[in-house]
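Reminder to self: tokens first, then the designed residues, so the page reads top to bottom the way the pipeline ran.
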């Protein structure tokens, strides 16, 4: 049941000078437009039945318009009441003072597709898949396949900044786009990392797919988003994964990280080489996430085809029982062409069939970049393996991009 409460806004983040409330338009790449307001507004509210108690809150500007001090709002209090680490704030459901149409812009004629269907927040949009109907980016088959550009698949949103930074360092002339899927936060504006990466030019664009919404482009499916990013926007490579605040449980199949399985299959089905960015940790208190996380191992087990997996060179998972459960053989003799079967893995052959690649990573360089360097409350120095694995993903993704381009497999924006 929804936990909704009336509240009064007592503090509201102002719009940047000269900013417009509309979402950023789909772009072929480069830095994000500087004159657009952040798509998410931070607030403090007081619940009507608990005056004097300030509570942090967020409001989606694209859905609700901007909120001002003194506005009466309805907020969803569930996450803050539960004390969730990744969702410790109230979420504005509706602004009663300014109404549901506050900040609305004229609707585009093509905005006829619904997201968040059959919820009180359903809204229309113009999907990027419509661009393919023009035939400009489609081959005679109507699909323009294979896509051929590599797709890096994330387990956690916290890996995104390190992947993008390492990719840019290894391939500064290549353009990397981000596709946000389900599995974590659905609003595209909730990621501060995306805004910073776009501002620095480390991401060429941001498309939200499936139930995720609020990106620079809106896709009905992950497949449609991949096709649009590579064929229409000309991305050289794609990083695909959930937004912040992954959904989780201790079960093998009940977590948002399993969205990586769908994303990898989507890439493979479209003829795009898939790279799994391994979730790894040297500091997580939970044994199931130390070494190589069970989230990543489950995806590697269930994949229908082999993929590439990136590992940081010279970094070992912890010793002991969780070392065996974390696929210790992968960190064994680098001279062997194929790692030996892993101990403590239920179906080791399905794990070791993948193309495991080590990459040299620059942890000090990333630490000095000023980009996000915390995961689950742990700093880079407290969990270097997490960030090392993400950096390795960016390096190997750049290598895969270079390999594709060396083979002369067409230009990103042209049908193969």
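Designed residues (416 positions):
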């Amino acid at each position: 049941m929804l936990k909704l409460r009336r509240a009064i806004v007592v503090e509201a983040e102002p719009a940047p000078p000269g900013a417009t409330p509309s979402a950023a338009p789909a772009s072929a790449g480069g830095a994000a437009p500087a004159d657009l307001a952040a798509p998410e507004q931070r607030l403090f509210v007081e619940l009507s039945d608990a005056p004097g108690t300030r509570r942090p809150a967020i409001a989606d500007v694209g859905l609700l318009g901007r909120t001002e001090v003194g506005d009466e709002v309805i907020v969803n209090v569930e996450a803050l009441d539960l004390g969730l680490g990744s969702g410790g704030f109230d979420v504005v459901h509706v602004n009663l003072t300014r109404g549901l149409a506050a900040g609305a812009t004229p609707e585009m004629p093509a905005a006829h597709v619904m997201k968040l269907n059959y919820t009180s927040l359903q809204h229309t949009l113009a999907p990027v898949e419509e661009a393919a109907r023009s035939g400009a980016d489609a081959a005679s088959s109507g699909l323009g396949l294979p896509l051929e550009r590599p797709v890096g698949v994330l387990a956690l949103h916290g890996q995104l900044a390190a992947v993008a930074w390492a990719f840019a360092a290894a391939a500064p002339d290549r353009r990397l786009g981000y596709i946000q899927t389900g599995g974590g936060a659905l609003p595209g504006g909730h990621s501060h990392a995306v805004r910073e990466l776009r501002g620095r030019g480390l991401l060429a664009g941001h498309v939200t797919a499936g139930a995720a919404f609020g990106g620079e482009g809106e896709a009905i499916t992950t497949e449609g988003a991949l096709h649009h990013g590579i064929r229409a926007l000309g991305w050289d490579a794609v990083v695909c994964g959930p937004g912040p605040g992954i959904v989780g449980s201790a079960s093998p199949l009940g977590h948002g990280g399993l969205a990586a399985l769908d994303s990898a299959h989507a890439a493979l089905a479209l003829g795009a080489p898939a790279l799994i960015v391994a979730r790894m940790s040297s500091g997580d208190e939970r044994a199931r996430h130390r070494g190589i996380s069970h989230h990543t191992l489950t995806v590697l087990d269930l994949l229908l085809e082999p993929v590439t997996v990136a590992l940081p060179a010279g970094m070992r998972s912890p010793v002991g029982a969780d070392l065996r459960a974390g696929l210790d053989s992968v960190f064994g003799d680098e001279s062997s062409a194929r790692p030996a079967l892993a101990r403590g893995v239920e179906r080791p052959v399905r794990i070791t069939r993948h193309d495991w690649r080590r990459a040299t990573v620059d942890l000090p360089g990333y630490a000095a970049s000023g980009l996000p360097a915390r995961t689950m409350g742990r700093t880079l120095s407290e969990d270097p393996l997490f960030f090392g694995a993400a950096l390795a993903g960016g390096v190997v993704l750049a290598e895969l991009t270079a390999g594709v381009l060396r083979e002369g497999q067409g230009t990103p924006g042209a049908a193969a």
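The longest strand covers residues 4-12.
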